[in-house]
Amino acid sequence: MAEIPPSILRFLALRAGGATHTSGLLACMAGVLSICAWLLGGPVMMISAFFAITLLLLLGPMVSSDMIMKLLRATELPRQNYPALFEMAALLSERAGLDYTPRLYVLPGKGVNAITTGKDENTIIALSRDAIDGLSPRQLRAVLAHEIAHAWHNDTRILMMTDILYRATWTMAVFGMFMFFFDSHNPPVWLVIALGAAPSISFILQRAVIRDREFAADHGASDLLGGPEDVIDALTHIEQINRRTLRLIPYRSTEPPALLDTHPTIKARLEALHALPPVFTGDFFRQTKR
């Protein structure tokens, strides 16, 4: 990765930049879809594709957060057994300006892991058992702050947008390839290459969006906690736990940067956190959501 210019590394969220650029990455994904549609059917196909995408984004319901928990075999965390954890979540949600407190679930499996899904009062934060039992209260609070930053920024909706754009690009490219191979068309080689590469490019951009949201959530957690120290401590400890408990499984976040990773490397995240102001500024939660 040393030969890749730093600007490209930052754009692809392999390294943190000065600010999030999710909107730019989404625009690139939309551009890839536009090119596919234009190549297959000109402006009419392009307009039709974006009309369909807009309808899906506006009217398409998100998968229920409860359904996702069932698929992950996660169970609701009993409040009476973990009152401090629920109090942490309530205080952090209030500090972030949320008018709800996410429900807490526990994930099966080894390793420290946490996910956020749903929106508004249906938001769920699921923590792995190793996170609940293996982290100190301050480290666990940092993990919760990171997930609440995801909820504040409505990242579930953003990731749904990337999924729709990627799947639409893949569907259109595959349709075009089948049309060329099984019809009487004899397309130029460059057109076949362009349609064949479009889904891969869209997928790489989708993964970059996810990594960008992780950098943003780290920033948000730092602001919620009054500085990056607890987030740095939590990430360092999480890497140690996962190296130990997942030693038989390739743990992606400990490897060199990869275009297909969903998370930046721990090293890149720590560098970004060390670059943040050491005291609370609140900048993240004064930003306009985008």
From TrEMBL:
| Cofactor(s) in the UniProt record | Zn(2+)
Q: What are the subcellular locations of this protein?
A: Cell membrane
> Locate the Peptidase M48 domain: which residues?
92-275
Q: How does it sit in the membrane?
A: Multi-pass membrane protein
Database matches in InterPro entries: HtpX_protease, Peptidase_M48
Note accompanying the cofactor annotation: Binds 1 zinc ion per subunit.
Membrane-crossing residue ranges in chain numbering: 12-40, 46-63, 164-182, 188-205
Q: Which Pfam families match?
A: Peptidase_M48
Per UniProt, which keywords does this protein have? Cell membrane, Hydrolase, Membrane, Metal-binding, Metalloprotease, Protease, Transmembrane, Transmembrane helix, Zinc
| Family of this protein | Belongs to the peptidase M48 family.
- Protein name in UniProt: Peptidase M48
Source organism (scientific name): Thalassospira marina
The organism's lineage is: Bacteria, Pseudomonadati, Pseudomonadota, Alphaproteobacteria, Rhodospirillales
